[in-house]
Design goal:
Layout: H1 10-24, H2 30-33, H3 59-67, E1 73-82, H4 90-97, H5 117-120, E2 127-136, E3 140-146, E4 151-157, E5 160-165, E6 170-175, H6 195-203, E7 210-220, E8 223-232, E9 239-247, E10 253-260, E11 268-276, E12 294-297, H7 298-304, E13 332-334, E14 341-345, H8 362-371, E15 372-377, E16 380-385, E17 391-395, E18 399-403, H9 407-416
Parallel strand pairs: 6-12
Antiparallel strand pairs: 1-2, 1-11, 2-3, 3-4, 4-5, 5-6, 7-8, 8-9, 9-10, 10-11, 13-14, 14-18, 15-16, 16-17, 17-18
Helix pairs in contact: 1-3
């Protein structure tokens, strides 16, 4: 295989899967990874001027270097932002939480907490944000979201998980699963927080439908890096390409950029502006609630809500076909690779129920109206809710098609299903 210019073969994809399992134990655990959403990114221009002169390396060799990375300790600053082409989620999150979640003082009618990570995540799926991260192995992580006049921190230290919102002086406490207390782990699941997390998810798609190459070098956060480029071979995907800057010395992904097939600036771009691979001070992970802070215990919330914490939105009211909606069924997968489409059937074949007055916050209605695009075909009629990355076709008879594919691809899939 010639260095720098070859696509990954199917055999290489198999090797990647094995390497990915080895690399998984080095990723930031879900207790901290939940601080960021899967659709967050970084303002471009993190790379310093001038591309470093590094030894040639093939795509397979670079992937193996990522998998072999021994990085378990680091600290630094990560800048993130997203341009999905949709309205801000900030007001939408507040609207849902206000129905039984946290208020401005850290608690609301549902005895929720403004420090609850489940609610805080909604603020990170749009706009630009700066995170300060620290990792010391699998048992100690901390992520802080830096705001203009406040700071939100999520800390995992052994069996303890704390979240603190300085804006409301509210704290949220949970026990890690498997702890002797038996309390549930109430932290968000499977949501990436660092470039390494995003890279792992992107490389899972590598296979016969994917081209993986090395495209030059860059300098990120003052460190020399190779540029790994992942592209769909198929047409119809909303993903144009993914570029991962990989630290030449440690094999750690330093920057992740996803560019849409439709062109324009990056949809997702996540990267370090500062990074230090030495062990963070032990005191970094210490936390005691400040005087006067309102502390909410996760297990108490779960008991009150019958096992499901209050104040956490599970689905959009009136959209029963969406995953997580009341009575929704698991999806059927149409297609393969980058063109995979998830198909959900609404219970009883019911169509999409228009929200009743006052049932959905005004921000939510505005959000849905801004995304809607009526379509028709053999399947009948429906609406495509579109972003620059993920699109969803909701038919009037209650079927939902979702994928990182174009509107035309969704309509084609719906027609073929008839």
């Amino acid at each position: 295989m010639a260095p720098n210019d070859s696509a990954q073969t199917t055999d290489e994809a198999t090797d990647l899967a094995a390497g990915r399992r080895k690399a998984a134990r080095y990723f930031v655990p879900v207790a901290v990874a939940g601080v960021a959403a899967a659709t967050i990114g970084l303002v471009p221009a993190l790379a310093a001027s001038g591309d470093p002169d590094l030894p040639k390396i093939s795509a397979q060799e670079l992937i193996e270097r990522i998998a072999a990375s021994e990085t378990e300790r680091l600290s630094g600053t990560v800048k993130i932002s997203t341009d999905l082409g949709i309205p801000s989620f900030g007001g939408l999150a507040e609207g849902f939480l206000s129905e039984g979640g946290a208020g401005a003082d850290g608690a609301g009618a549902g005895e929720g907490s403004s420090a609850d990570p489940q609610g805080k995540l909604m603020e990170l799926v749009s706009g630009s944000h700066t995170l300060r991260v620290a990792v010391d192995g699998p048992d100690r992580q901390k992520v802080s979201i830096l705001e203009k006049s406040a700071e939100y921190s999520l800390i995992h230290n052994g069996g303890e998980i704390w979240a603190y919102d300085s804006a409301t002086n509210a704290a949220f406490h949970a026990k890690k699963s498997g702890n002797d207390s038996g309390a549930a782990d109430a932290t968000p699941k499977e949501l990436p927080a660092t470039p390494k997390d995003f890279a792992a998810q992107a490389l899972q798609a590598a296979g016969a439908t994917t081209s993986v190459t090395v495209d030059g070098t860059a300098q990120v956060a003052g460190r020399d890096a190779y540029q790994l480029v992942v592209k769909p071979k198929q047409s119809g995907s909303t993903i144009g390409s993914i570029k991962v800057a990989v630290d030449a010395k440690t094999g750690t992904p330093l920057k992740f950029t996803l560019v849409p097939s439709g062109g324009g600036k990056a949809v997702i771009d996540v990267g370090f502006t500062k990074v230090d691979f030495s062990r963070p001070a032990a005191s970094t992970f210490d936390f005691d609630p400040p005087k006067g802070a309102k502390v909410t215990e996760a297990d108490e919330l779960e008991k009150k809500a019958g096992g499901e914490a209050e104040g956490v939105p599970r689905a959009l009211p009136g959209l029963p076909g969406l995953p997580g909606g009341d009575g929704s069924q698991g999806p059927d997968i149409i297609g393969e690779g980058w063109n995979s489409i998830a198909k959900f059937e609404s219970p009883g074949g019911k169509g999409l129920t228009p929200p009743k007055d006052g049932e959905v916050p005004a921000e939510a209605e505005s959000f849905l109206d801004a995304l809607g695009d009526p379509v028709s075909g053999k399947f009948g009629t429906g609406t495509v809710f579109k972003t620059r990355l993920v699109n969803a076709l909701m038919t009037d008879d209650g079927t939902v098609y979702v994928g990182a594919v174009t509107k035309d691809a969704l309509v084609k899939a719906a027609n073929a299903a008839r």
